[in-house]
Write the structure tokens for this entry.
Amino acid sequence: MSSREEIRKWIWQHKNYPKFSYDRGKLSTLISEIEYLRGVLDGYSKLFNKNDIRKIEIDRLTDEAIHTSLIEGEVFKRESVRSSLRKRLDKEFDARSDKYATASTDSLVEILLDCSLNKNPLTLERLHGWHNCLFEHSYSKLHKINVATFRKNDDMEVISGAIGHERVHYLAPPSDKIDEDIKSLLLYCNTEYENIYIKSAIAHLWFVIIHPYEDGNGRVARAITDYMLTRGITFTQFKLYSISTAINSDRKGYYDILDKTTNLFKNREFNIAPWIEWHLITLRNAMQSGLKSIEYLVQKTKFWDKYREYALNERQIKVINKILDIGSENFKGGISTKKYISLTKVSKATAVRDISQLVEFGCIEQMEGSSGRNTRYKLQMVTQKDESEIYF
């Protein structure tokens, strides 16, 4: 009897695997909140013209690409990913003059577009295609790996820690189980009747459990999640939120919940409800963040509808757009002459003159209680119902 059989430590060793246990009823409130946010996002999407919506979609896809890679410690430049997306989605983009897109970002974008636009059933060929896009040159850091084919190694471990002090977080199933497990997973993804948000969480976890590739399993798992979440969206649309961005903002929580779920010493009841709940909360956070970004764009549109006839210079437009793009609550500390200088790289005299002109035009006004060297201003916004203020 092998040590694997003697000690049942990992979730795939449980007698009920892969018939996962969870109480769907306890997740109903979260699902309702997510459905509501999805409806609001869909409603907002109808406020914009086709070009504006495409810009929002490109921004969210860029976020998705950057953050699914950052979770694994791989860094891509935003302008590179964005250029790769624009080559494929923006008919006005001059790809021949582009200096930013790379072969790697082009390949990463291919995965995102296939997840979003290809509504055909999930197949083994697609999984291998995604994996090939991640490792076209057959290397993961210093090591040559098998690409677009499952691992042959029975000792696939997820570890962390310094050399000589490694900690094993997970031991994957033996390689002879992979084909059968993947077949069951694909059948589940393509035919199982279950709430799509719960289904995306289970598919994500299940793929991580199988860990079929030598590297890239997390990124492929998140691609599966993306694919599941876009099944109900029309052929020409993309998600207006990025779940990988939300996962990356709680990367420690992500790895902790996977650790607690896949380790039977920590999950003796074989219950994956905590993982599903974490996944749904993260999805809700992603949708809320996506909604905020759209609200900022609405505010920006309304502001420039009011002030577009004013002769603002490039510096003034740059400062105002920076605040409108990130939202006032994320622009901490307010704007002063000193901060204006920092943002525009101009002299104090020019900064004072620019701010005075913005006050004269009515774009900004001095905040109560601020004066002298501590003078700050607020940017006036006009909404459909009333006037609201964004402080900067």
About this structure: The chain has two domains: 3-295, 310-391. The first strand starts at residue 139 and ends at 140.
